[in-house]
Design brief:
Radius of gyration: 20 Å
Number of helices: 17
Order of helices and strands: EEHHHEEHHHHHHHHHHHHHH
Helix content: 55-70%
Shape: globular
Distance between the termini: 58 Å
Oligomer: single chain
Strand order of the largest sheet: 1-2
Structural class: mainly alpha
Strand content: under 5%
Number of strands: 4
């Protein structure tokens, strides 16, 4: 209109999400990130605040607003929505728990179950990271699976409110708190943000538009999958989905490696690491362990023994970070990425810490 406002009913249904142009309006979906913002604002000792953000939400409404989308809803949806989906099957089988993401996250938010009695700072890290890197992570995969299933059924508009599921996956990956353009400095607080945070620690901020190499690849694969689905190339979209998931594992591995180093007693003041360092290590390790186990049960067992931090587990990197990191590097290719994707953990001067060098090279 004359004031520069869009006339009602003339709003564009598409949007730019970190450079991805959606075919449908998924702004309400992306606002699941608002619940994470609420959670992050809770005081360290306020378990009720974090639990409410996880369980009750309020940032992301469905349709007319009578129903609220929650992070816990994502975590509990496995049996009803994902039982035939390979990545959910892999993760739930590893933990022997159909509600594994909720078991981890709810107990962390409340300070109950396996996390009863842990320090408030540890509970904060476990709760927040469980919500994003387990519950939301798997739901992003589910939405891609849903889109591919719709493709195979020759119905790309079969979702509630006729929202394209592939666009929903992007919305849940990036979130409303991130900038609309690729490489934007405001990268939000969902899975997309982790790649942007960790790339500076590992020398992998090499995307053409100033973003992480991981997100450059993922957002390109999202766009590719969108185009393939539009032509009902369901097998091609399946390949795009797998490429996305394997790149999503990279910043989780980077997070685990960073805290393997920081939680190694040899690198802690007086040999005693803080609860925060231990909790961050376990949060990232737990997020990626099922995929490591699928590549090598022996490496996963060693990784878990050196990272698990619960009421019953001390969270001590007993074998030393370099030994565990070297073992993990051996399974990168089986997991679907390379050590160049991961990079090496850098110190303040930009040098790789001893024992954290990538074992492969570009020739």
């Amino acid at each position: 209109d004359a004031d520069g406002n869009v006339y009602p009913g003339m709003e564009p249904s598409c949007q730019s999400i970190a450079g991805y142009i959606s075919g449908t309006d998924v702004s309400e979906h992306s606002q699941i990130a608002v619940d994470m913002t609420t959670m992050e604002a809770c005081l360290a000792d306020d378990t009720a605040c974090r639990t409410a953000a996880y369980v009750e939400g309020g940032g992301s409404v469905k349709g007319s607003g009578d129903d609220i989308r929650t992070i816990r809803g994502f975590a509990l949806s496995g049996p009803s929505k994902m039982s035939e989906e390979p990545w959910y099957q892999l993760y739930s089988a590893y933990w022997d728990d159909e509600a594994y993401a909720d078991t981890f996250t709810l107990n962390a938010c409340q300070g109950t179950g396996q996390f009863a009695g842990l320090d408030d700072t540890a509970l904060t890290e476990l709760c927040e990271k469980g919500a994003v890197y387990q519950a939301i992570f798997m739901y992003v995969i589910h939405e891609m699976e849903d889109a591919i299933a719709d493709c195979r059924a020759s119905d790309l508009n079969s979702n509630t409110d006729s929202v394209h599921a592939w666009d929903e996956a992007v919305a849940f990956y990036v979130g409303s708190e991130a900038g609309a353009e690729a490489g934007a400095a405001d990268y939000g607080n969902l899975v997309y943000a982790l790649a942007e945070k960790r790339c500076a620690n590992f020398g992998t901020c090499t995307g053409a538009q100033g973003q992480s190499a991981v997100n450059e690849k993922i957002m390109a694969s999202f766009a590719e999958g969108q185009a393939l689905l539009a032509t009902y190339d369901c097998d091609g979209a399946e390949l795009s989905k797998e490429a996305i998931v394997k790149q999503m594992l990279v910043p989780q591995m980077q997070g685990a490696l960073r805290y393997l180093y920081q939680a190694d007693p040899a690198n802690c003041d007086g040999g005693e690491c803080t609860a925060k360092e231990k909790a961050e290590l376990w949060a990232f390790a737990a997020a990626v362990l099922p995929a490591v186990d699928a590549a090598s049960p022996a490496v996963a067992a060693q990784f878990r023994a050196n990272s698990e931090y619960t009421t019953a587990s001390p969270g001590v990197v007993g074998d030393g970070y370099a030994v565990v990191a070297a073992a993990l590097q051996e399974v990168y290719s089986t997991m679907g990425f390379s050590c160049l994707d991961v990079g090496g953990l850098l110190d303040a001067d930009g040098n790789v810490y001893p024992g954290m060098e990538p074992s492969c090279q570009s020739i």
